[in-house]
Amino acid sequence: MKKGIKGRLITILVFLIISIMFLLPSTPIYSVLPDWWGTLFPNQGVSLGLDLRGGMHLVLEVEVEKAVDSAIARTAAGLESSLKDKAIGDISVKQDQRLIQITFPIDKNETVQELLDDNFPNLLTKEEGGGNKVLALRESEKDRILTTSTLQALETIRNRIDEFGVAEPLIQKLGENQILIQLPGINDPERAMALIGKTALLEFKLLDETNPILGEFPGRIDLGTETAFIESFKERIGEEDEILFQRTNNEETGAAFKIPFLVKKATVMSGDLLTDARVSIGEFNDPYVSMTFSGEGARLFEKITGENVNRRLAIVLDDNVYSAPNITEKISGGRAQISGTFTHQEASDLAIILRAGALPAPVKVLQNVTVGPSLGSDSIRKGWTAGFISTLLVVAFMIVYYRLSGLLSVMAMVINVILLVGALAALNATLTLPGIAGIVLSIGMAVDANVLILERIREELRAGRPVRLAIDAGYEKAFTSIFDSNVTTLITAIALFMFGTGPVRGFAVTLGLGVTINLFTALVATKVVYDYLNSRKRLETLSI
Q1: H or E stretch including 317?
Q2: CATH for 143-366?
Q3: Is 329 exposed, middle or buried (0-12, 13-18, 19+ CB in 10 A)?
Q4: In whole angstroms, how far apart are CA 390 and each of 417, 440, 441, 444?
Q5: Angstrom distance (rounded) from CA 161 to CA 170
Q6: Among 130, 136, 273, 399, which is least packed by CB within 10 angstroms?
């Protein structure tokens, strides 16, 4: 056997074995395999989407106008606290709808205006005179709150659902102020609703950096091992401490892991004293997150940082550490920043998380549908039945019309399906009904490529060429047509994935993978069989 043929056969065999290994967890066979199998080989297969597995389908509406009202109320409280800190004298701060009215000694007008300019730049003076000012939020600030409040609610809900442990949830923004949530396989919808409806809790806690057990802490742990890690140190950490984790990703591989922290249980400051968090750009064009506290928060933060210089302060949202910066000096003025090796997107995400804790926008349920598993089973059965019947018809046509060469094309189609489903399992993709449709369409395209090749070979044989030359010429002439049609389909799949949502993206994934794998099986897998047969015995005729 020639080296080139042997190498191609080995490559195909290796891809098949790898695909089957990834596919096994999705099959009933996996349940009878020994326990050690899952530790050495892939233990996660294809996840089923909501339409196949059942679960919850929610549509929430974020009441963005209430977010503006809440921001004005907190601003009014912060303004009153700041005015009192200035010892201006007899002052009064009242809120009327979306206006803030303040009264103060007339001789303090300049001091009040200076305070507003320095600490409350988002307030606009609507009326003033005689020791009175009527203030309102600037339109730009209102627009910002309206725009970001849905993102805040989205991030808060995502944090909750991640803790709930739902596999492959779908959480995305709909329109301007709605959120779509799909939770496949959920079996406790009441608990899920209660979890989603809770308010995010933002806390500032000091790290315990003196406990000797820190020397035993690894730099990172795998996802899913948090409980076991806590149990291993539970008896030695003391009642005043707790272990919390920060989720992060490996920059090279993208794999997720968690970093353990030993944190003081006592909350030195809570998120209700935070009035704003947003992305700013430093002098070296590096992004950081700037935070603004209320008057009370500013005083407390100054005290905390002054008493804990050279210690680390953990920023904790829903018992997850998002940052643990080192305190280098006392911070006054009600402003602070979180800097680090942020990308702009990471800094923006952290700002959203911080605002979510300080300003969770109210949400109300517009749609709440629980899809039963019986519907999922029925969908699976009908989907696979349709796929089986269509495949059977294609197989029958190919064998009857193209004889032995048609059978070879059918073998290539089987390899195509195994590689496709194995690739989906390797990516831990979520399979939906549109995804099954994408698989069926890929089967059709795989057969179409082989039909082009076989028809070109037929033309060469009719022209009187020897079998080997006819096969080579058939593949060569069909290559351009196959490549062009598959690449244009792949571009369509990429566009569907980029701009589509939910099930449309599932269809795009299966279609894109199917097209890519089809190029390999059509141009390599079948050709190597013809080359192998020719290498053993010169073919005089071909069953086609």
Answers
A1: strand 313-317
A2: 3.30.1360.200
A3: exposed
A4: 14, 8, 10, 9
A5: 10
A6: 130
Task: Calculate ∠ Cα 55-56-60, nearest 5°.
Answer: 165
Contact (Cβ atoms closer than 8 angstroms) between residue 502 and residue 57 = no
Strand partners, 55: 184, 371
> What pLDDT digit, counting tens, does each position of 118-162 carry?
888 888 888 888 788 888 888 888 888 888 888 878 877 776 676
Dump the DSSP string for 140-173: HHHHHHHHHHHHHHHHHHHHHHHHHT-SS-EEEE
Three-class secondary structure of residue 125 per DSSP:
strand
Q: Can you tell me which residue has the tokens 């795998």?
A: 222
Nearest to 380, CA basis, from 47, 33, 19 = 47
Q: Give the rounded distance of the alpha carbon of 425 from its chain centre.
A: 18
Please identify, in words, the CATH class of the domain defined by 67-137. alpha beta
For the domain made up of 3-52+373-536, give the CATH fold: Multidrug efflux transporter AcrB transmembrane fold (1.20.1640)
C-alpha distances out from residue 525 to 5, 15, 489, Å = 10, 11, 21
Centroid of chain to Cα 521: 32
What are the domain boundaries of the chain? 3-52+373-536, 67-137, 143-366
CA distance 495 to 278: 32
Q: Please, are residues 192 and 71 in contact by the beta-carbon 8 Å criterion?
A: no
CB atoms within 10 A of CB 529: 17
Please enumerate in sequence order all residues whose Cβ is within 8 A of that of 168, keeping only pairs 6 or more positions apart, or say none. Answer: 47, 49, 184, 428, 430
Query: What separation in angstroms does the CA of 436 have from each of 45, 358, 395, 487?
Result: 15, 43, 18, 21
